[in-house]
Every structure is written in C-alpha cells, then in structure tokens.
Amino acid sequence: MEQYDASKYEKPSVAVDLLVFTIEDRRLKLLMIEREEEPFCGMPALPGVFVRMDETLDETAERGIAEETGLSGIYFEQLYTFGDIHRDPRMRIISVAYMALVPVEKLAYKAGERVRTAYLEDVEDLLAGDKEIAFDHRKIIEYARWRLANKVEYTDIAFHLVGKLFTLPELQIVYEVLLGKELYKANFRKKMADLIEETEYMTSGEAHRPSRLYRRKES
Amino acid sequence: MEQYDASKYEKPSVAVDLLVFTIEDRRLKLLMIEREEEPFCGMPALPGVFVRMDETLDETAERGIAEETGLSGIYFEQLYTFGDIHRDPRMRIISVAYMALVPVEKLAYKAGERVRTAYLEDVEDLLAGDKEIAFDHRKIIEYARWRLANKVEYTDIAFHLVGKLFTLPELQIVYEVLLGKELYKANFRKKMADLIEETEYMTSGEAHRPSRLYRRKES
C-alpha cells in the first residue's frame, strides 16, 4: 500500500445497497422503495444505508435489512461493489451491494424513514419495461438477477426462499422461478434426492389434500 | 438512501488490493510485496492502491496492475470487498479486492515505489505455514484461492493462465493446479473438446518432440 496521508485526500462515501428477494405468486419479487427527494424523486430505488465507521460491511447490511424489513437473522451475502464515479450525481458514493433471500411468509416490510413506501416489485416487470430506476440500480438489479440464476445451478441458495419445512412443489417453484424455466417433475425430484429428506409432517388445510413436508438434509 | 450530509460524517478510505495469480513450475503463484514501513514492516502483503476520486474501481485495479507489473490488458475481475473495522490499524480502510490472472511468460514484475521487493510467492506454501501476512491479507488470499478452485469448475477462467496457443498438457496443468488434484488425461480431453480447437501449429524446440498447439474456440 502506498504511503497515504488521510487528511490530504478527499474520500468517497461508502454505502450498502440492499436487494431483498422473495418469491410470491410464483414470481421473483424485490423490495424497493420510492424516493421522496431529489435526485430521482418519485422513482423506484433499492433501499440503502451508509456504512458507519464503527460497523463492518456485514453489520451495515444487517442493520439495513432490519430497518427495512424488521427482520434479523435472514440469509444475506455480499454481491458486488459498484463504484462508477457519477453513479450518484450529488457526490462520490461507492455502493457495496448485498443480496438477501427470505421466504415471503417471513417478510414483513415497512416504510423506512425518508421514503414514501417500501413495496415488493416484480423483478421481470421492473427490468422488462423502460421505467426509470434511480441511480445505477437497474444495473445492480440486473447483475443480481444474473447471479441468482447462476448460483442456483451450483449452490443450495434456493433453500433460503422456502421455510424450514416445504412441499416438493414449493421447492420446485423456487427453482423454476430462479432459473426462469419449467422443470420436469421427475428430473427435479431426482436431482433433489441427495439434498432433502421427508419429514413425518403433512400440510393441512381444507382447500387441498395433504402433502408431504420435506426439509433439507443436515450436511 | 437516508438523507446524508457528507460534511458531517467521517468517511472510510477505500483501496483496491490486488491478487495477481500465475502458474509457474506447476504451482500457483501470487504476486506479493514486502512491506518496508509500519505497520507490518518486513511482512509479505498484497499490493494495493487507494481509489482516486476520478477513477472507477476497475480503473483503480487497472492502474494498480500496471504499476506493479507493467502490464495492461490482462484479465481481472472484482473478487470481494473486505470491510472489517480494524483491518488496518492506522485507520478505517475498506478494501475492494481484485483478482488478475496472467500466463507467467507475460508477467514481468517490478518493485513499486515504497516497497522493497515484488516477487512471486507459492500460494500453498504461503497459506500452509504460520508465517505472518500483513493486514487481513491471509483471509483475502484464502478467499481468492477458494474462489479460483470453485470458478474453474463452471467457468472458462483457466484459459487466462495460458497463452493464446497452448498444448493440451499445458492446459491440463492449469486445471490441475487450480483444482488441486490430478485429472485423467482422457477425461480431461473429452471435457475440453467443446471449448478448444486444434491449430495448424506445433511447438518447436530441441528438448522435446513437437506437440500440437490448440486455441480456444470462438464462442
């Protein structure tokens, strides 16, 4: 590291932007806010928080998730750091993007301070249209969408989008939504055989007949 | 993003730390420097540069690679951002780590300013010992080593460690070194069949008999 006199140079600000994904009605949804001030007033944006000097990046992400959703202990991971010079027109802000995954049953979201509404946006609709999205958040969302599709192929990330107990059709929907394609039931079940195990429990309810509940195998 | 008065808060510094990997003598090597000032004076460290206000993170990485190796246009990608509060004892520095891959023939390295030596270190030796490494760079190197082994399985990242033309044994060595295990020649060639194609060229030289040279297929 070159010698550095901290007082001599202007520093960028560092923020954590949050991509809180869930699946609702067989669609991938993302927690968005509507900006209520300039720049990009009225546009959809990712929730974000500035990194405080006394917290790590993971701690900033946890705080942001708690502030936006009221939840703690949900799965999250660092996605990528975005550092284009003029990504925020006010000043240089480097954004460390974090991705969180949460089953929709668990997700209660609330408007944070300084924003009008926090709401779930359909990701395909959001990206398909030519709707403006604040800052470089379209790029961040596109990158996250690509990473999700990619990671579901070679990791067990999909399990963060179902509860501890789940039916096989529920799990298949998660895989299908993340991959963006339908899967053959028999192939899917074969592929999952090493990852999940039957429980003694069944779903209840009058609308459908009971289905077997599964859980992830301990690894 | 919450409202933010940039003048009110202390900001972290942001640096790019570089992991320049190559393969030499069938071993994975990493470009390291020896620190010549406190903290961690005399210890091995990753080369790093501070992010300037007028350059993107990728541009910082390119500049750092050029300063350390004299090379431009080599493959690099962002790895992960490390933000532990006390990772640098002097002040809060958030490090965006970048990983570069370069064939050893191309790599000329030179001592930067402010460091005594830049040299290639054997990665397994570096991580296996209890040798001290500056800052949190052991953690960064371990993460990069894991990612490389991981990415070689499902991407074509290995091709950045051979030249434009290569023999099949050269390519197999790269895969074996990154995966950390030997591969059966026949299986390896079968797996590569879709990715590479024969050229009309052969290796020359008196020590060995000529071998066919291959190149990556255009995708």
Oligomer: homodimer
| Percentage of β-strand residues of chain A | 25-35%
Look up the CATH topology of the largest domain in chain A: Nucleoside Triphosphate Pyrophosphohydrolase
> How far apart, in Å, are the first and last alpha carbons of chain A?
40 Å
Low-confidence stretches of chain A: none
The greatest interface here is: A-B, 43 and 43 residues
Supply the number of helical segments of chain A.
5
Radius of gyration of chain A in whole Å, from Cα?
20 Å
Query: Pairing-aware structural class of the strands and helices of chain A?
Result: alpha+beta
Overall pLDDT metric of chain A:
90
CATH class of the largest domain in chain A: Alpha Beta
The main pleated sheet of chain A reads as: 7 strands, mixed
Which geometry of chain A do the CA atoms define?
elongated
Structure commentary:
The structure is a homodimer of 219-residue chains. Chain A is an alpha+beta fold and 219 residues long. Chain A has two domains: 142 residues, Nucleoside Triphosphate Pyrophosphohydrolase (Alpha-Beta Complex); 55 residues, Winged helix-like DNA-binding domain superfamily/Winged helix DNA-binding domain (Arc Repressor Mutant, subunit A, Orthogonal Bundle), CATH 1.10.10. The first copy, chain A, is 26% helix and 29% strand. Chain A is built from five helices and nine strands. In chain A, the strands form two sheets. In chain A, strands 1, 2, 3, 4, 5, 6 and 7 form a seven-stranded mixed sheet that branches. In chain A, a hairpin with an 8-residue loop joins strand 2 and strand 3. The longest helix of chain A is centred in the middle third of the chain and has 18 residues. Chain A starts with 12 loop residues before the first strand and ends with a strand. At the A-B interface, strand 1, strand 4, helix 1 and strand 5 of A face strand 1, strand 4, helix 1 and strand 5 of B.
